[in-house]
Amino acid sequence: MTQTEPEFWVLEYVTITKDPRTDLVVAIGGTERAADILQRSGGFLSVPGPRGDYHRLPYGLPVEQQRLKATTASHALLAAGHSVHLDPALTALATPDGEHDAALRYLAHLAERASAARTNSEVAEILTEIAAPVSGLLPLTREVVVRAWIAASNLHGAAYGEEPEPLARLGDTATFMSQAAHVILRARNHARRAPQHQATASAPRPAPSSASRHL
Fold first, then answer.
1. Phi-psi region of 207 (alpha: psi -120 to 50; beta: other; left: phi over 0)
2. What radius of gyration do the chain's Cα atoms show?
3. For the whole model, what pTM was predicted?
4. Are 60 and 125 contacting, i.e. CB atoms less than 8 angstroms apart?
5. 9 or 159, which is more confident?
6. Contact in structure between 153 and 128 (CB atoms under 8 Å)
7. Which DSSP state fits 88?
8. CA distance 41 to 39
9. What pLDDT score does 160 carry?
10. 3-state SS of 102-125?
11. Which residue, 83, 103, 189, 208, has fewest beta-carbon neighbours within 10 Å?
12. If you count DSSP H runs as helices and E runs as strands, how many of each does the chain have, helices first?
């Protein structure tokens, strides 16, 4: 008796992941029925690709919205009988440790993009990720510092302007972070306006010395 290869319905499998180069949340694979579920339950868009249509979430969504839509779509697909692989970084059920690991991966990925940047536009995109007024890394970090400063001041029972020196310096740090974000955004705007020359590979420039950083 000849043993035959079992049928494998590859189109029934859907992968939902985040493309590291473009930061797009994409869904690959699936049937027309899966496409309908992705569009209705997750808000995915059908777009043409080099190897046929695929689905993606609208660009620029906040991370929490990406997770919510990706998780909702994956659950709807599973309920309809499809097999789904959901990128752990996109699950809305992520644990605190998973959140921390995802943040570290994001920062490492951003550093890699900065090292690999070859055009002014690419540099501008990275600086936007760092200092964008609403969702930039630096303003969000400043918000954490401000809230920690307020909480520490309240717990200490100090009135505004009468905090101990370390707490007062913490408040000053939040101001410095706002100023730094403004400087970065000015550099971003300059990079956007600069001629779009292609950079050639060169030796990395040394980091500023500790003395120069305090000038």
1. beta
2. 23
3. 0.49
4. no
5. 159
6. no
7. G
8. 6
9. 65
10. HHHHHHHHHHHHHHHCCCHHHHHH
11. 208
12. 7, 5
Q: Reply yes or no on whether the pLDDT at 202 is more than 70.
A: no
Token readout for 131 is 């200092």
Structure confidence at residue 94 (pLDDT): 57
Tokens of 27: 């869904």
Please answer whether residues 118 and 45 qualify as being in contact, where contact means their C-beta atoms are separated by less than 8 angstroms. no
Q: What is the mean pLDDT of residues 157-172?
A: 79
What is the pLDDT averaged over residues 41-56? 87
CB atoms within 10 A of CB 189: 13
Cα-flanking dihedrals φ and ψ of residue 173, to 5°? -60, -40
Chain centre distance of CA 188: 18
Query: Tens of pLDDT along 57-82?
Result: 998 888 888 988 998 899 888 888 88
Bridge-based pairing state of the strands 83-86 and 13-18: parallel
- β-partners of residue 86 are 16
| Residue keyed to tokens 């009988």 | 81
Tokens coding 141: 């970090």
pLDDT score, position 203: 47
> Among positive and negative, which fits the CA dihedral 90, 93, 97, 99?
positive
**pLDDT of 99 over the 70 cut:** no
Q: How far is CA 131 from CA 116, 138, 142, 187, in A?
A: 19, 5, 11, 10
144-174: burial string, b at 16+ Cβ within 10 Å, e else: eebeebeebbeeeeeeeeebeeebbebbeeb
